[in-house]
Amino acid sequence: MLLEVRDLHVEFRTRDGVAKAVNGVSYGVDAGETLAVLGESGSGKSVTAQAVMGILDVPPGRITHGEILFQGRDLLPLKEEERRRIRGAGMAMIFQDALSALNPVLCVGDQLGEMFVVHRGMSRKDARAKAVELMDRVRIPAAAQRVRDYPHQFSGGMRQRIMIAMALALEPALIIADEPTTALDVTVQAQVMDLLAELQRELGMGLVLITHDLGVVADVADRIAVMYAGRIVESAPVHDLYKAPAHPYTRGLLDSIPRLDHKGRELRAIKGLPPSLMHIPPGCAFHPRCPTAQDVCRTDVPPPYEVDEDRRSACHFWRECLHG
């Protein structure tokens, strides 16, 4: 297993109380595999990724329990200097807002080249040449001329390609892509996802794709983990999950996607709002919004029931959901 997250808990201590952002998340990804982590905003997807990368804001964030194993090595006990050596060379992250993630006062060539200067000890001239190679690799036109341009001079899609190039610079074993297609139009989304999939096949790296858009991952993911209120409520191979979800939240997400064969019908939506992470409901956190909730759902936290060998669902009534 390339990356294995075991029973991870993360909380944020604020003036208003303790927000339990991640509550026992466990997942894994192998080399060459794509794991999509889905859920609404605030479900804990990005916080889990930040904990894996070692870039969690501490304080107010705090990892209270769990293990993060990368290539068999637990990252949590490591000192910051050791984590920095792993970031970039071993694992890298593509952030969701490229314009904010890139430094506005440095040209993109310097930002790409910094990876080689810091981690490989290259000269600035050699690092600039590598930056041009990376820009060519992610299909940015006229890379040799544009390497001196600044982030604001690129379109949203081109900036996202630069972020991908930065993540791939040192050919890490694992990439975490946090909403890589946010704010991009549908055509550019497809181009970015195709590029990621192609580079993944070329390098054989593992990919954790964080998104709230089920349509984005249908063709690229091998497995899906669905998160709600800081927990994984369902995990399954992608085709199994789309064919027959085993959790009412997953079913609600799928039903809320517009479909051509449902033209003219009212679009379904999940009623209500996600819970406050400071006041997560007892029992199953989804029960206030679940149309099939029963008394046990309001009192007992559902464990991850084994649906089959490679599938889990945190729902007391997963059988009814699966066949419903």
From TrEMBL:
An MF annotation (GO) of this entry: ATP hydrolysis activity
Stored CDD domains: ABC_NikE_OppD_transporters
Keywords: ATP-binding, Cell membrane, Membrane, Nucleotide-binding, Transport
Protein name per the record: ABC transporter ATP-binding protein
Membrane topology recorded in Swiss-Prot or TrEMBL: Peripheral membrane protein
Species this protein is from: Streptomyces luteolifulvus
Main localization of the protein described in the UniProt heading: membrane
Keyword Ubl conjugation: no
Family to which the UniProt record says this protein belongs: Belongs to the ABC transporter superfamily.
GO BP, sorted A to Z: peptide transport
Subcellular localization(s) per the UniProt record: Cell membrane
A Pfam family that the UniProt record links to this protein: oligo_HPY
InterPro entries according to UniProt: AAA+_ATPase, ABC_Ni/Peptide_Import, ABC_transporter-like_ATP-bd, ABC_transporter-like_CS, Oligopep_ABC_C, P-loop_NTPase
Domain ABC transporter: 5-254
GO cellular component, one term: plasma membrane
Keyword field contains Iron: no
